[in-house]
Amino acid sequence: MTSTRSATLFALALLAPALIYILTIVAYPLVDTIILSFTNASLRAEYDFVGWANYQRIFGAGNFTEVIIRTFIWTFFSVSLKMIIGMCGAVLLNAAIPGQTLFRILTMPPWVVPMAIGIFMWGWMYNGQFGMISGLLQNFGLTKGPIAFLAYGNTAFWATVVTDVWIGVPMVTIYFLAAMQSIPKDLHEAAWTDGAGRFYRFRRITVPLMVPAIITMSLLSLIATFNSFDIIWILTQGGPSGSTTTMIIDTYKTAMGSRKYGEGAARAVVISIFVTIFCLVYFRAVRKLQQGEAK
Q: What's the CA gap between 239 and 184, in Å, rounded?
């Protein structure tokens, strides 16, 4: 009996740091945000419980639906491009070519450079008067005059996507490269001996063995991109005319710009629900896919 109790106490002692972390860093802020979302908290010292009023106001506003759709479109294109470019980059870096180490080092700057500095650099390149991109387009005769990419809705939206992809691709590339290098070379050599071409080996050997890495990286990238704030805020602050306003930007403007903390908390809860639902659906789809492949 004593030994069993000691083992239980020892197990609880080992779990204590993780439990404390979850309770203080995750559980408490989440519960506090949920409670705050049912109030009319603002700059006033006192606030009242308003029930579902904040949520009714959010979904009653016509622009919030547009914000949700824009967020999913922005996330879809950003994550898709990062996965595709990252996979292509990993394949190239994994090839036996001269200067392989140098190319791997050159892949890192977008990830190593502080994010704010990288974003400001892109903001300078997007400038219509002295930006490099507009200047090159004019020099090659592709445009008749300067283009202020961040001044128009469509170009500003895609400018933020390009910037996010530039920042995120190195991490995806290095992660996929590590996954490729963990694949036994014997499998590729045996397939090559049997006459299998590079594309066949990539499709039938490399990709199936990289599925766990692809699933993990795509999910992490999706969550990070969905909640991305720095890139859009530094470049456009959600403008022009809300064309780059995503759910996280909309939440910040409501809570910090308009000082409507209760409604801002409600928007944060909605974001958490969307991310949770998507993760559950994603894992279920992946599980079904793996079970189908196993059969």
A: 49
The H or E element that residue 153 is part of is helix 153-181
More confident residue, 288 or 223: 223
Residue 4's pLDDT band (cuts 50, 70, 90)? confident
- Cβ proximity of 264 and 271 under 8 Å: no
Give this prediction's pTM.
0.86
Q: Determine the Cα angle at 99 with ends 95 and 100, to 5°.
A: 35
CA terminus-to-terminus distance, the chain: 47
DSSP 144: S
**pLDDT for the residue 10:** 79
Instruction: Tell me the DSSP string of 264-285.
Output: HHHHHHHHHHHHHHHHHHHHHH
For residues 221-245, average pLDDT: 91
CA distance 235 to 149: 10
